[in-house]
Amino acid sequence: MPEVHIPIGPQHPALKEPVNFKVVVEGEKIVSLDLDISYTHRGIEKAAEQRDFIRVVPLLARVCGICSHSHTTAFVKGIEEAMKIEVPARAQYIRTIVAEMERMHSHLLWLGVAAHEIGFNTLFMWTWRDREIIQDMLEEMTGNRVVYGINEVGGVRRDLTPALISRSFEHLTKLEDRLAKYVDMVISDETLKMRFCGVGKLTREEALKYGTVGPTARASGVDYDVRRDEPYLAYAEVPWKVVTDTNGDVYGRTLVRIGEMQESLKIVRYCLENLPGGLISVPAPRTAPAAEILSRIEAPRGELVQFIRTNNTDKVERLDIRTPTLANWTSVAVSLVNQNIADIPVIVAAIDPCMSCTSRITVMNRKDTKTCVMTWDELRKHGRNLYQKEWRA
Amino acid sequence: MDAPLLAIYILIFPGFLFLAAFAFFLEFLDRKITARMQHRVGPPFVQPFADYIKTLAKEVIDLKGVDRKALDAAPLLAMAAVMTAFLYVPIIGRSPLAFQGDLAVVLYLLTLPTIILFIIGWLSRNIFATMGGVRAVTQMFIYEVPFFLALITPAIMVGSWSISDIVTWQQHNLWFAVLQPIGFIVALIGLQAKLERTPFDIPEAETEIVAGPWTELTGRRLALMHLALDMAMVTGCALVAAVFLGGPLTPWTITPDWFAGIVGFLLFLVKTLLVLLILSSITVASGRIRIDQLNDMGWKYLASAALIQIGIVLMMNYLWVGA
Fold first, then answer.
1. Which H helix or E strand runs over A353?
2. What DSSP character marks residue A160?
3. Do the chains contact at A118 and B288, CB–CB below 8 Å?
4. Do B287 and A7 touch (CB under 8 A)?
5. Among A101, A166, A314, B292, whose CB has the most other CB atoms within 10 angstroms?
6. Cβ–Cβ of B39/A12 closer than 8 Å?
7. What is the pTM of this model?
8. Residue range A334-360, pLDDT digits in tens
């Protein structure tokens, strides 16, 4: 059978954000594919160097629409480490609560998207409806549904009142019922299993070799979670366990995420019950002493790493964000080969990709593989040449 | 039936005009039921009709190198085939056009929209449309055989190839849904696959190949093709209701004739909607399967089940005739 080239993206109904796969197929089987992920570069790392710490935090909340809390948490954690300030326990607990609620709504969103990719729209509608419970809770706690803006250097910006906490328990009970329902659905639904089992298989060795993180790695049996292995916030004090699975396929990733949602719910409940008293923030100095910090946290999609270099001023000298999606991309390209075309959307969705968080640009000389910096004029000239030579032809 | 009455039967009620109106109504119901089950509000009553008028008024976009006339003709051909098929399905009583073999004609006419979808996909000169077209035909080869077998088994029992005869037979006996439950289930699954609804919406899988054969359809072509598929849904539901659920006839003779017609029509409505409800529930409760999985399912289970049903019917025939 002749080979057919199928372009998927940058605009395609399966994709929520722009990315491009040039897929070569034989019949319904994928032979090879080419990946182009940088369509939405926003220059956030550079922008962070222009602002003082206080104003970097809201900027980083906008790296990702789903895990806005994770990015700010990673940053304030790093800066607080550089400033050597002790954050009050109450603030750490509130950060933990918001982080775990974010994980739950991110995983619920993922479950809906994955179901939609296999045409199971009922599950999609249901999970997105129940996600509203969490968003309502977040709105009550932080004042916002998407960009919570609860973190600041030295603590959090809002306190939880007793009335709010008791209302949150009611929401949590409702949510627990719904989560149990989804566990039941994932375990018992036939079409879901037909499309998820054995698809996008990644062995433990492969998962380690391609550097996967988060639920993708844990579904392949890699027992690794920053929350347990390098505890931050209040995770060391809360009883919880890391969810892993040995299936290694999309079904395994679904089971891991569902298990994590249940664990998150327990963490939130524990934190609300055992919320310590005291201050919610301490005053932080304007500047940070020169330091190099590697701040790691477990975002909903996996390990998020931020490298922060400070230089005795009130701005960062360099901020480098390694999103979990970037770590997982190569494993997608590998697990897609020899699969069915029909499985592309669900395998891609299985790592819960977040394109615009991942978009980076590096100018590189192909001959000696060295990176370099372009001036504004060079960049404009390059853009004109590229348009005339490649895209016009 | 004399000529003017027959003309009214074919053109207005229960012919073409009624078919179009009922198609919109059934689409509305289908969308509403699906929406309510998915905890959404769903469309207002006139939405399918409004959609139709809107798409009808939109620009028709011709791609370079596409056979325009063929693409214009394709939806009309599909619609004509489905409309013709509908005339032989009993609606208010026996169809006045019934003849020996109309079951086979209806089945073949209902196959045409799928073939036309393939042709549209092929004519569109678009990779997604072509793949969708190929999938549509592949899928047809899988579900068509069990579907035909399931609908033919009642004919074997009745000893007639006319849908109206099958309905009349059920007037004095049990419904075929009771006598041949396996065939009924196979027919429902086959119908679901024929109408390309989840879990068998493989040819138009949105997240995989955009809209399949529908990708390059615009304006009135899209509107007409959509209407043709809605009409196919009506015809399919009515056909299954007639063959397996006894159609519009009651075991008792009702006088006068006009009252019998009304009762028959109401029965037709109720039974068609029942079939639709089953189809919608299947749609809501499942995700899309892959074409290779459908192949497995279709040939291993559906075809075997249909064959077993035929075997059982032949035995029943032998025993009843023998007794």
1. none
2. P
3. yes
4. no
5. A101
6. no
7. 0.86
8. 888 888 888 888 888 888 888 777 777
